[in-house]
Amino acid sequence: MKLSLQLYSIREETAKDFVGCLEKVAEVGYTGVEFAGYGNLSGRQMKTALDLFGLSAVSSHVPMIRLKNNLDEEIDFNLEVGNKYIVCPWYQYATREDFVKTAKLLNKIGEKCKKKGLQLGYHNHAFEFVKFGDEFGFDILYKESDPDLVMAEIDVCWINRAGEDPAAYIRKFGARCPLVHLKDRRDTADVCFAEIGEGCVDIPAVIKAGLDVKAKHFIIEQDRSARAPFESMRINYENTKKIGLL
């Protein structure tokens, strides 16, 4: 299994030189990237850059507003660069009905994606783990959405932050979880992100779970770091490889 990088991890650098950052990502050893914006590159320009550095587009985080208003553009771009997964990175919720309505909305978007050969997904944070009766909003979202149209991109750090077991959720979702976000954190009251292997998330367990359910991609993300972005990117790659499961 190869490792990909969520480019949000180095967003300060991609804002300066997107193509140069792709080269550095490849030099570290990553073989794929997940987009969080495209650096004003066209689909053709992006594909040329990815091919030049031996990288693959494995996924793209696309805000809900663009999924609702600019879906055709996103589909065309991602097809051109060879990507198969479009992921809604987050959404806002206040009530149980909000989760149900979002599930139905994701179904509609997912159906349009599927007709074009793409798969829609949703990326969790911790705030989806609010209880309505005996159910988390997170579980309601997936219960009310179609497994064929909406897959789960499990962010293991945020599930851990919510007090739940990310490996158990990966196994629960099984084939519905083709993308796994590898991310670590320190066990503090406030969210304090850490490089892989330097925090409290059981990364070997989540990798093992991902391998067991035949996840397609493991994607490293570092929301914030006390280290420089490229140093953090390198440490995350090296520490993950040292675990020896990939």
User: Beta-strand percentage?
Assistant: 15-25%
Q: What count of structural domains?
A: 1
- What is the element string, with H for helices and E for strands? EHHEHEHHEHEEEHEHHEEEHEH
Helix percent reads 40-55%
Task: List unreliable stretches of 5+ residues.
Answer: none
Q: Distance between termini? A: 5 Å
If strands are numbered along the chain, what order do they take across the biggest sheet?
1-2-3-4-5-8-9-12
Radius of gyration: 17 Å
Structural class: alpha/beta
Query: Mean pLDDT score, rounded?
Result: 97
Second-tier CATH architecture: Alpha-Beta Barrel
The CATH class: Alpha Beta
**What's the CATH topology name?**
TIM Barrel
Describe this structure in words.
With 246 residues, this protein is of the alpha/beta class. It has a single domain (3-243), classed as Alpha-Beta Barrel (TIM Barrel), CATH 3.20.20.150. The protein contains eleven helices and twelve strands. It is globular.
TL;DR?
By secondary structure, the chain is an alpha/beta fold.
Main traits of this protein?
single chain; 246 residues; alpha/beta; TIM Barrel; two-stranded antiparallel sheet; 11 helices; 44% helix
